[in-house]
Amino acid sequence: MDKDIESLQNILKDDPSNFQVRRELSILLADNGFNEEAEGNLRYLIKYFPEDAELYYNLGIIYEKLKNFVKARDCYQKAADISPQEDFFYNLGEVLVELKDWDNAIATFRKVLETDSGDGNSYFNLGVCYFNKDEKNLALDNFQKAVDINPQDVFAYFYLGYIYQNNGLTNFAIESYKKVLSISPDYSWAYFNLGSIAYRAGNIEEAKEYLLKTIGCNPNDIEAYKLLTKICLKQNEIEEILEILHTRLEKEENGDLFYCLARVYKFAGRLEEYDENLNAALKNPYTLTFPKDIVAEEYSDAEAKIGRHQEIEPEAEISEFEEESDEDFEEESEAEEGIDEYEEPQEYEEDTEASDDDEWGGDDTGFDDEYEDMEEESEEDEIEETDNEDELGDEDN
């Protein structure tokens, strides 16, 4: 392939005005990741062929690869203005989604559907746009059309499940999540949300099973560890959760997980380990989403008890501060491949209020009631989780 690029470059050295060779070279450079070089050649060609829609389209693809979505939008728009083709509108729509320009994205995908009413990806993207506009009924309608056209659209099924779950239609949500897993058995967010539903329904063993599958598929899902810690404390399965948390922390330190460990050790009445892990949590502030002032206060109290050679009494139950949070759902779409990971890709914001059972042990597992007046805003990056313990995956069509 390098030889092909080199041979085309040699031809251009002898004949810089060979536009066909330069066009071929531009595509070859782009296909091999030489985006800046491809950009330069395409811009050169556009000077001579300003009404060539394909050149603008190809340049838009380059800018999209370079994450310059504004320039990509302008190029796709120019291509569509010159020649209103379906592919031009589709790529324009995806870039508008990246730019969170929901209304113009909707209008653009509608244009795609005018010429191809069976384009499931366009229906999916319309669902994403309406979801972000908080028009959930329209989002449901378009996600349903997407799966009607493409029954293997795992991400559309996931969105359906998520919307049903947050509307309290748990049976429909469970059905949708199970459909996700029948298509993609390693889809960790579906396992997590099924675990969350089971937990709220009081099906603790079922919830635990789903959460163990979650971390089996995605060992980095911190929210799954947090909910699993609550469940293990409910069932007094101290050694099991200690092993799970320590195994994860051996791979990478995390403030939230150190805090989970601290609370487990407090539950077990092990003051020194409690104190040690509170300190470790504070030393990892960027991954500690629990209120740092509260953690610091606990650590100070634990240090004082150690200084007085005072023992800590094992706790029969554990309650945690109450928290409410805003969810940031982010997603980005990839044209030909369907859904890619959300690059904190479109940011979906959804406000949810935590119920008693959604708080960290705010039911029969609480750490006393010492934090009952506390509120916290928690945030998440790649696929996000809130106090209602639901996750929206970071993938897109």
Give the C-alpha Rg.
26 Å
The end-to-end span amounts to 30 Å
Across the major sheet, the strand order is 1-4
CA-based shape: elongated
Mean pLDDT comes to 81
Structure classification = mainly alpha
Number of strands: 4
**Number of helical regions:** 18
| Helix content class | 55-70%
Q: Please indicate the percent range of residues in DSSP E strands (runs of 2 or more).
A: under 5%
Largest sheet: 2 strands, antiparallel
Q: Can you walk me through this structure?
A:
The structure is a single chain. The protein has helices at 2-14, 19-31, 35-48, 53-65, 69-82, 86-98, 102-115, 120-132, 136-149, 154-166, 170-183, 188-200, 204-217, 222-234, 238-251, 255-267, 271-282, 292-307, and strands at residues 325-331, 333-334, 338-339, 346-352. The relative contact order is 0.08. A two-stranded antiparallel sheet has the order 1-4. Strands 2-3 form a two-stranded antiparallel ribbon. Residues 318-389 have low confidence and may be disordered. It is built from 18 helices and four strands. The two termini are 30 Å apart. The longest helix is centred in the last third of the chain and has 16 residues, at 292-307. With 397 residues, the protein is mainly α. Helix 3 (35-48) packs antiparallel against helix 4 and helix 13 packs antiparallel against helix 14 (222-234).
